[in-house]
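User: Structure please.
Assistant: Input sequence and predicted structure:
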Amino acid sequence: MSLPKHLPALDGLRAMAVTLVIASHAFPMVHELPWTVKRFSNLGWYGVQLFFVVSCVTLANSWRRQELTGPPSLRGFALRRWFRIAPAYFIAALGYLWLMQPAAIDATRVATFLTFTSGWSPAQMPTVQNAWIGVPGGWSIEAEFAFYAIFPILIVRMRGLRRALVALAISLPVAWAANSAGLAAYQPAYGDMATDQFLYYWLPNQIPVFLVGLVTYELIVSLSEEGRWQRAARGIVRFRVGILAICLVTFASLAMLPWPRLPEPGHAFLPSHVIAATAFAGACVALTLCPGTIITNRFVTRLGQASFSAYLIHFAIIAGLERVLPDRILAGTGVAAALTGGALFLLVLGLTGCIAQITYRLIETPAIRIGSLVIAGTRSRAIAAI
């Protein structure tokens, strides 16, 4: 069983994800942002986890739909993901190379960047000061590529809601154990800050978030019109406002509660980003079952479709604004600082959304089409060989 090929709610959620990320980077442009505002704008950090949840739902649905006509091709899966991400990502890296002009570029760092393997060493991830980073925020792309490598195994072995829940439950203590071992191995060489950032970024710490996405997909399938929980689905539709409110309050509470970023003893292996992912999962289920919501209007879904371009671009827009804006604008305090931060956030969001529509059509869409042609060609050659 699979869901429809296109779910507008997922595009809307991608738009929400990139909006959160932009907020987390735009508000801090104001140097003396009030702490109350800063702690809530920092929630935008978790926009990446929303991307991960939605990405896993999309991947799982695409895989299940392909299974309806035969076993999915691993080569096709790999090519499709590469052409979806790599061309825009590499072009963005060239743009940031020109914009930031690093003093030196390490050959090893370039090699790991090009192969999406920077996430396996603190020396290669963007945790070291003054290092060339390729694309700001690229850690999330590299974590997702690492997840692609294990996704075919997960989607085949973890079929059904029960197995997906078991995999999620196992991943939490595994992440805690991996982070504990990583802390002991890397902290002496790289220090507290770089090690903490690395352990937050790397795949073992983020894999529970992807598995939350897999659970979300299986739950949506069970609640769909052909699923076994149709009666429960009607209840979710009826009480969707309350469910979304609970998800929102849970997410917002992360700004107030001292929950750890990494799994720690005494917190049931639940770090803050997994709690955020769980809140996002609840919202994803409710919104997917309820078409025609505010996040499925044309403007929001178009931003969601171009959200990858928006993610890549917004760092450059913020850097450009910081260069041209007078210091007196960015040096406000109190209410003035909060208002300035809000205005800058809206400005960055607007500029990013407009430019992303262009790059999506000029770079992402052609790359996706080329990928489809390459996949079709390899499939034709395989059939001819038979």
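The CA atoms of residues 9 and 288 lie 5 Å apart.
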